[in-house]
Amino acid sequence: MKLLQEKIQAEGIVLSDQVLKVDSFLNHQIDPQLMLAIGKEFVSRFAQDQITKVLTIESSGIAPAIMTAMLLNVPLLFARKQKSLTLQNNVYVEQVHSFTKQVTNEITVSKKFLEEGDKVLIIDDFLAHGEAAFGLAKIVRQAGAEVAGIGIVIEKSFQNGRAKLDDAGFRVESLARIKSLTDGQVRFVEDSAVLTAEGNGSHA
Amino acid sequence: MKLLQEKIQAEGIVLSDQVLKVDSFLNHQIDPQLMLAIGKEFVSRFAQDQITKVLTIESSGIAPAIMTAMLLNVPLLFARKQKSLTLQNNVYVEQVHSFTKQVTNEITVSKKFLEEGDKVLIIDDFLAHGEAAFGLAKIVRQAGAEVAGIGIVIEKSFQNGRAKLDDAGFRVESLARIKSLTDGQVRFVEDSAVLTAEGNGSHA
């Protein structure tokens, strides 16, 4: 998605060869028009999939996910993240490890909002090691519902989450795929396609 | 706001005479069309105020706030909540006590996203004791910016937050004002106006 790539190039801050900070438009300050455009792009990719619910995780997933859910005209559900959990019977729980923060959180979704027959689109802001996406997918399956696909705003393609999700058979649609963050530069997967393939890998 | 009142009556769960659960459309599952309608209502109330930024707090404030920001065509900024804080120079910090959860969080906003001259609309999902709203307002003032107003989705008018914000001189616009939750019933401030005033207090 060209608009998103341009925004990342203009405002993203490369903190290391592993970490990209996009707190001016996605993770702290949020650009609502960009979120709407992101929602439209996800809808164009999943329009044929009879989605019944969008699922994300607090907090940074909520803005892109609510736009997607609005345009699909289905409810949004967001998983809650918590460090410790009092035992509850009425929620689905999965463990999610954050490599960035080096903590394991429990993510929870109330059982009453997911049911057999739901076709769920999972949306998240970042894909790195895939922990959050797998946790959300497991919750969908606990409910007997179907993961229709996984929509990611920014994928760090040099980390292993994407490959693991592909291997597990999930359909993943990432709007910006980052090939590397070395030398303080953001390089997109599409950029290398331009160089190595037939010359037009820079699709939106 | 009539649509919101109807949704609360239809789906809100009165857990006690202090606690209303609205996790089917606002706090866990979210109704995006309702959020859009809420955004429109906030815009109609603050359209003349030259808002430059919307400020909310994670997580449940984000959905109504992003719709408001989208329609006002300004950025959204959400404060982060955390239990302990490593000392940082680049953020504004305020203490916010949650009476419901009996914890005090620190809320933070990066200094680079608020500046003198900003006219900030604060949006939150609930107003009870006013702790979050005051915390956000203090952050705006730390930045030398102006609080143009405070927009609340659901106000528990029987708790003291509204009165405290009024006394402090803030303009508060609450879309649903709950007078009481006794006997498992939701009663709105407007309902009592119907009985005590000229018979038409149930405006949207």
Describe this structure as you would to a colleague:
Chains A, B: Residues 47-157 form the Phosphoribosyltransferase domain. The structure is a homodimer of 204-residue chains. By secondary structure, the first copy, chain A, is of the alpha/beta class. The first copy, chain A, has a single domain (2-196), classed as Rossmann fold. Chain A is 31% helix and 32% strand. In chain A, the strands form two sheets. An eight-stranded mixed β-sheet of chain A has the order 6-7-5-4-8-9-10-11, with helices on both faces. The first copy, chain A, has a two-stranded antiparallel ribbon with strand order 1-2. In chain A, α2 (32-46) packs across α3 (62-72). The termini of chain A are close together. Chain A binds chain B through residues 23-24, 28-33, 35-36, 58-59, 62-63, 66-67, 69-70, 73-78, 80, 109-110, 113, and chain B through 23-24, 28-33, 35-36, 58-59, 62-63, 66-67, 69-70, 73-78, 80, 109-110, 112-113.
Q: Which descriptors would you attach to this protein?
A:
eight-stranded mixed sheet; Rossmann fold; 204 residues; homodimer; globular
Secondary structure topology:
Two copies of one chain form a homodimer.
Chain A: H1 2-11, E1 13-14, E2 20-21, E3 29-30, H2 32-46, E4 53-57, H3 62-72, E5 76-82, E6 91-98, E7 103-110, E8 119-127, H4 131-142, E9 146-156, H5 161-167, E10 172-180, E11 187-188, H6 189-196
Parallel strand pairs in A: 4-5, 4-8, 8-9, 9-10
Antiparallel strand pairs in A: 1-2, 5-7, 6-7, 10-11
